[in-house]
Amino acid sequence: MAEGTVASRLxxxxxxxxxxxATLIGTIAAPTFxxxxxxxxxxxxxxxxxxxxxxxxxLNAGITDANGHWAGGRTILVQMGDVTDRWAxxxxxxxxxxxxxxxxxxxxxxTIVILGNHEAMNVLGDNRYTTPGEYAAFIDAQSVARRDRVxxxxxxxxxAAYRALDPKITGEQVRAQWIAQHPLGWVxxxxxxxxxxxxxxxxxxxxxxVKIDGTLFAHGGISAEYAKQPLELVNKRIAxxxxxxxxSTASVLNDPLGPLWYRGxxxxxxxxxxxxAAAKPP
Length: 282
Fold this sequence. Notes:
The chain is mainly alpha-helical. 51% of the residues lie in helices and 7% in strands. The protein has 13 helices and 5 strands. The chain has helices spanning 2-29, 51-60, 90-106, 117-123, 132-136, 143-153, 155-165, 171-181, 186-193, 198-205, 224-227, 231-244, 270-279, and strands at 41-44, 76-79, 110-113, 209-212, 215-218. The strands form 2 sheets. The protein has a 3-stranded parallel sheet. It has a two-stranded antiparallel sheet with strand order 4-5. The longest helix has 28 residues, at 2-29. The N and C termini lie far apart (96 Å). Mean pLDDT is 88; it is low at 1-10 and 13-35.
């Protein structure tokens, strides 16, 4: 009996020791840490002058309140570029985003506006997709006189250009056609969006690529060629080209492989393929 009792005690002691060891091993293998809650990220793509769509999206996502002020707390808002063109109210969206860039930071959040190819087009004077409403948003009491001054300052060169196409055209006809092609607000729009204008400078200060918690955000895409370059360098190159208004064929602003234009991650990009083929040594 004594031997059995001793054996039982030893067995019980071994079980207790094993349980303690298992508890210790479990504590070492699976530590518990108070992890920092990641910030919420809301990414919104091409708004193209549709202010009502932007207002509804921002409100429903909890980014803004009913009065358009920041309500997102610590949220990071990433607007993915192409605020301008196609619809009438791009200026309203720009002003809203500029306001949120200031308000979000004071509430622990952040508003990041990424440069899109349409912002670059506006800076470079490519207004193929700019709407009459976008020009009209810039009209003020001096718009008529300002447009007249621009015409008069360039009248001789304009008449020469028009007469190269139609030698019989009169000066009055040249002016009438030019006025029809340049609605009120056009002069102010060009001044604001030019490289030295308020909106041109704002656009140039917005990054083309942003990395947040290991995720890259860009308006177009990151081609293999640009993936080899440091993110900061690409952003600096694009900002410099925006500031200089570089519209050359070699400009990073026009590069089909660049982050403003590249579409190869979503679809076959024939323009980018041509660019690659041209870059290959013979």
